[in-house]
Amino acid sequence: MNILQVKSIKWLALAAVALSALTLGGCASTRTTPVELPKVATPDYLIGPGDNVNIIVWRNPEVSMSVPVRPDGKITTPLVEDLPASGKTSTQLARDIEKALAKFIQQPVVTVIVTGFVGTYDEQIRVIGQAAKPQALSYRSDMSLMDVLIAVGGVTEFASGNRASILRKVDGKMQKMPVRLDDLIKQGDISANVNMRPGDVLVIPESFF
User: Fold this and answer.
1) Would the pTM of this model clear 0.70, i.e. be above it?
2) C-alpha separations of 55 from 112, 114, 178, 195 in Å
3) Radius of gyration of the chain from Cα atoms?
4) Alpha carbon 99 to chain centroid distance?
5) Domains, the chain, ranges and CATH?
6) Mind listing the pLDDT tens digit for each residue in 36-50?
C-alpha cells in the first residue's frame, strides 16, 4: 500500500466520523420534548326538558321508574309530584328526590341516570337558515363547527356558506362571528373549523342570484 492510498483511507475515516457527528447533532437538535396540554375541566351535564331520567330507589322498586322531563322542566314520580329537574345535575336531582321521599321512606338512597340527552335550552346549539336540516342540537364536549354541519346534513344548494355567522353570548352581550362554511366543506380548509360553545346559534344565509 503506497502513501497516497494510506492518506486516502485516513481522509475517508475522518469524513465518516464528521458525517456521523453532524447526523447525531442534527437529530439531537430536532428532538422535541412532548408537551402536555393543560386539561380543561368538562362542565357537568345539566338536565333539560325532553331528557329522560331513570330513577332508581334502592330496595324500593315500586317507586323506581324512568320518566321524561316535561317542557316546564319538572318531573312526576310515585310519591313525588312536580319536582323541578331542569338545570340540575343527576346527583343534585337524586338528592332532591331523596328529600322528597324521606317523608314516606326511611333513609331513601336514590340514583338518577340521564338518558335521551337534550340538555337545557340555553346550552343547545341552534342551526337556522339554509341548512339541510335546521334544528337544535345538544351540545357535546369539544364540539366543532364540522360536527354541527354533519349533524344537520350540511347546507342546501342555495346557501351562501362563506357569509354564515355564529351568534354567541359573551359576558351577557350577543356577538356575531363570521365563519367560512364553503371553505370548510368544499375546499377542506381545516382552519375554517372552529369550536362551538353551548348556546351558539349558527346562521346560514341564502345566496344572492
Assistant:
1) no
2) 5, 9, 43, 34
3) 30
4) 33
5) 52-115 (3.30.1950.10), 124-204 (3.10.560.10)
6) 434 445 678 899 999
